[in-house]
């Protein structure tokens, strides 16, 4: 019975997310049904909380949805479809976020009485485990915001024995892996080498049982091995393996993206993204975590407080642009393309094709 409830709830949750993604009527009741079907489904409860915002008198949102922190701008990989490490992002800072700035950010959230309903992620345009202060940051965040789900996003290559200490601090390790076939992995996630990284993936799965969320950006290169990738990680105790639609990450030249993506279309986010807080390693606040070239800043934490950046005129202006469907007025939004997340992506799309 419990298993059945969990499966029904999960199904409803996926349908609700799809309806919301397509901006279709009925997604809120679907979230409610998912939470009712299985009260132990934490994801459904979280989605429900974030779908019923309660406005505050001080102009701040009731809660933030998602926060991504560029704890470091450096990555040890340069995946072929990722703007990190390419000429078009040569101007982007590659250092670590100073601890003082990091504390200002976390303290600002705590002091404003805000929570984050989805999660806080370490790792934006760089890799969460390349950051030398990742343990200290995780400890600080958990002291100040104990109820918030913390994820460290990484390709796993920098994993070292000392990182095992994170097991008591993080809720999720967002582990990015695009293939378990040497030739494909070495091509997509270059200059990483699968032979060297695989033992690290195994060590992470061993040290973080039930906490590893595997992210597999789907491309024409790995389409044939998706089930095998899922089976390999699940057999070793991963919590889930998610097939993520490929995004062009607002890149200037889309030739490579077009050769890898399945059936990309313009992505048109709604104004709810202004409830996300994206802060890069130097304090620059961005509208979107896909803005790898940092073309649309909406604040700077070096010069303003967290509350001020959340109430800023530029954030409000962006909200209006997205609400009115004027995406083309923004360089990043106008050029944003990607494959679409459907309930059983990509298998439902492949079956329909
Ligand atoms: C940009 S990475 C940054 C953090 C870390 N370096 C990593 O690889 O996980 C964050 C997430 O984006 C996903 N990702 C990478 N390239 C992508 C793309 N072109 N489209 C969609 N998702 C992508 C990865 O799987 C990962 O979960
Ligand atoms: S996708 Fe992640 S691992 Fe790959 S280059 Fe970009 S930041 Fe690094």
Automatic annotation (TrEMBL):
CDD domains: Radical_SAM, SPASM
Domain of life: Bacteria
Stated name of the protein: Radical SAM protein
């Amino acid at each position: 019975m419990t298993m059945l409830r969990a499966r029904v709830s999960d199904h409803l949750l996926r349908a609700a997310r799809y309806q919301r993604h397509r901006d279709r009527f009925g997604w809120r009741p679907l979230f409610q049904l998912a939470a009712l079907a299985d009260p132990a489904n934490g994801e459904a409860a979280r989605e429900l909380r974030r779908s019923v915002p309660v406005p505050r008198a001080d102009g701040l949102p009731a809660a933030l949805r998602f926060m991504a922190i560029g704890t470091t701008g450096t990555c040890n990989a340069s995946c072929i479809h990722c703007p990190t490490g390419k000429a078009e992002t040569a101007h982007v800072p590659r250092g670590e976020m100073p601890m003082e700035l990091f504390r200002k950010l976390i303290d600002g959230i705590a002091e404003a009485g805000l929570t984050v309903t989805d999660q806080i992620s370490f790792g934006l345009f760089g890799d969460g485990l390349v950051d030398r202060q990742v343990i200290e940051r995780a400890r600080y965040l958990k002291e100040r915001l104990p109820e918030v789900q913390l994820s460290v996003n990484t390709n796993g290559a920098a994993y070292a024995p000392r990182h095992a200490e994170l097991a008591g601090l993080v809720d999720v390790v967002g582990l990015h892996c695009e293939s378990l076939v040497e030739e494909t992995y070495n091509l997509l996630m270059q200059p990483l080498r699968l032979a060297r990284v695989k033992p690290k993936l195994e060590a992470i799965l061993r040290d973080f049982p039930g906490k590893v969320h595997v992210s597999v950006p789907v491309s024409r290169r790995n389409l044939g091995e998706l089930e095998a990738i899922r089976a390999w990680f699940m057999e070793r105790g991963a919590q889930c393996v998610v097939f993520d639609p490929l995004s062009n990450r607002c890149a200037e030249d889309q030739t490579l993206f077009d050769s890898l993506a399945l059936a990309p279309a313009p992505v048109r986010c709604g104004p709810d993204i202004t409830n996300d807080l994206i802060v890069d390693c130097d304090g620059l606040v961005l509208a979107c975590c896909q803005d790898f070239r940092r073309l649309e800043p909406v604040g700077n934490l070096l010069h303003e407080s967290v509350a001020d950046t959340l109430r800023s005129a530029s954030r409000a202006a962006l909200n209006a642009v997205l609400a009115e469907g004027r995406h083309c007025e923004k360089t990043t939004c106008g050029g944003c393309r990607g494959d679409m997340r459907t309930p059983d992506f990509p298998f439902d799309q492949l079956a329909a094709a």
